[in-house]
Amino acid sequence: MGAVAGIAAVDVGGFAYAGGWLRPGALTPPRFTDRFEQVYGRHEGFRRNHAKGLSAVGTFASTGAGAAVCRAGVFRPGSVPVIGRFSLSGGLPDQPDMPTTVRGLGLLFQGPGGEQWRTAMINIPVFPDSTPQGFYDRLLASKPLPETGKPDPAKMAAFLDRHPETVAAMKVIKGASPSAGFADSTFYGLNAFRFTNAAGATVPVRWAAVPQEAAAAPAAQAGKDYLFDDLIHAIAQRPLSWRLLLTIGEPSDPTHDATQPWPSPRRTIEAGTITVTGVQTEAPGNARDVNFDPLVLPDGITASDDPLLAARSAVYARSFTRRAEEPKRPSEVDVSRVLR
């Protein structure tokens, strides 16, 4: 139960009614956004989930191999600029860094001709919920009680009893121990998409960003922001890189359910290298104001039948609209403070 509660805010935004698979009126983007505020409080100017974060810039150098399955310009040989954001799940912009808190990496690939590809990844191999309603219900079940700081055991047990898919996903997640920091984390796209190449052939794809950084020694956990501080120090010394791996699904692999891993092994393509060359305190003009909407896709990539995708897009938009209209407070993660 504790592990489930620890990833209650997994993903990069939230999920809600979008598209008609839920009973009309049962769940809407405003209601879902309200639930984040109910659980974490209202923190004006910040994202409702993954509120604590750090902006980044870099490049994506394509090997050209991805063009075998996708005609998007970003997969042609060459390099394109990237805007990124490292984050922790949860709606508290000043939460203390913890080794078990889910870490996020959002990326905006600036492809040729103004084409964009946006993705929001996290460092767990599957998602705990298969539907927007499941995530919505788990979020409330995971809300800490004031007197204990932990979820109500009865509510969490009742939720898990109704959601065996979450129980199964948690077993997979528990089997993948988190790395020491951001630099050596593997980030997963989780949801399936459909890639189409220049010849018109379409295949299901999931992707992951796999670190080239060697596994680090466990961090000392000195300080409230130690995960971000370590990342800032590392990038001040050298760029950090991740290999972008595309996993090609078979016809029998589920594309509608992010709780289910695809069987191993599956064919993979090393599409290129994501290199982060710098990080920035969140401010106007950088990733602070980017909505990492997973349905901002280039020609050659389309959404699968996963119901979470349209839902994520809908709630990301609602969260973005709210914070855009609110006054801003300084980010907890301050690059200049760390590098003094």
Automatic annotation (TrEMBL):
<dbReference type="GO" id="GO:0004096">
    <property type="term" value="F:catalase activity"/>
</dbReference>
<keyword id="KW-0479">Metal-binding</keyword>
<keyword id="KW-0560">Oxidoreductase</keyword>
<comment type="function">
    <text>Has an organic peroxide-dependent peroxidase activity.</text>
</comment>
<feature type="binding site" description="axial binding residue">
    <location>
        <position position="316"/>
    </location>
    <ligand>
        <name>heme</name>
    </ligand>
</feature>
<comment type="similarity">
    <text>Belongs to the catalase family.</text>
</comment>
<dbReference type="GO" id="GO:0020037">
    <property type="term" value="F:heme binding"/>
</dbReference>
<protein>
    <recommendedName>
        <fullName>Catalase-related peroxidase</fullName>
        <ecNumber>1.11.1.-</ecNumber>
    </recommendedName>
</protein>
<dbReference type="InterPro" id="IPR020835">
    <property type="entry name" value="Catalase_sf"/>
</dbReference>
<dbReference type="InterPro" id="IPR024168">
    <property type="entry name" value="Catalase_SrpA-type_pred"/>
</dbReference>
<dbReference type="InterPro" id="IPR011614">
    <property type="entry name" value="Catalase_core"/>
</dbReference>
<feature type="compositionally biased region" description="Basic and acidic residues">
    <location>
        <begin position="322"/>
        <end position="340"/>
    </location>
</feature>
<dbReference type="GO" id="GO:0046872">
    <property type="term" value="F:metal ion binding"/>
</dbReference>
<keyword id="KW-0408">Iron</keyword>
<feature type="domain" description="Catalase core">
    <location>
        <begin position="2"/>
        <end position="337"/>
    </location>
</feature>
<feature type="region of interest" description="Disordered">
    <location>
        <begin position="321"/>
        <end position="340"/>
    </location>
</feature>
<keyword id="KW-0349">Heme</keyword>
<dbReference type="GO" id="GO:0042542">
    <property type="term" value="P:response to hydrogen peroxide"/>
</dbReference>
<dbReference type="GO" id="GO:0042744">
    <property type="term" value="P:hydrogen peroxide catabolic process"/>
</dbReference>
<dbReference type="Pfam" id="PF00199">
    <property type="entry name" value="Catalase"/>
</dbReference>
<feature type="active site">
    <location>
        <position position="50"/>
    </location>
</feature>
<dbReference type="InterPro" id="IPR018028">
    <property type="entry name" value="Catalase"/>
</dbReference>
<keyword id="KW-0575">Peroxidase</keyword>
<dbReference type="GO" id="GO:0005737">
    <property type="term" value="C:cytoplasm"/>
</dbReference>
